[in-house]
Amino acid sequence: GAVVSQHPSWVICKSGTSVKIECRSLDFQATTMFWYRQFPKQSLMLMATSNEGSKATYEQGVEKDKFLINHASLTLSTLTVTSAHPEDSSFYICSAGGTNAPEAFFGQGTRLTVV
Amino acid sequence: AQKVTQAQTEISVVEKEDVTLDCVYETRDTTYYLFWYKQPPSGELVFLIRRNSFDEQNEISGRYSWNFQKSTSSFNFTITASQVVDSAVYFCALSGLYSGGGADGLTFGKGTHLIIQP
Q: Residue B11 has what pLDDT?
């Protein structure tokens, strides 16, 4: 199946700093990438959908100025958590979609801890 | 709006027992995808199956089987002869399709924590 690589797998940052998470599709062109967030012992919630070369679409309640998404190429999307606070601590996971990837393969996820 | 309900929060069985994880969904789309994922403690999501809404054939893969009943909007997952390694959180998910034919963003159920005791 398709391979999606997410980096870093875990990160600890200080409150007020920004953190960038990368999501790469390694063997197919991902026209669309999705970003999800999962709090401990909870389900995954879709945060935003990014389409290559255009602005991301955010789900209701997700602050677009706080969670900056860039999808500059067909193989890379980035999520930047700006001015992170402890309540942003969560598991962030991406998936890559497209005509050739209907299985919605997921990256390994990034565990963010803000101290 | 789409919704996925996994009523079983946690299931505990003894190894070698069969276990069924329930999934009920709601959608107004006439065409959609249904998924099951396994999430071990490490956190990654392991893809198990995708089913198109127009394909109601049940599927078997080794010890895993899936029963898709469109009439009751259910997509249940059965593990036969369970093993300790099957212990994980299992998520059922639903998505629409976008114009390219791929899956749209997924709506996940709350997950079922499956514990297989030796």
A: 98
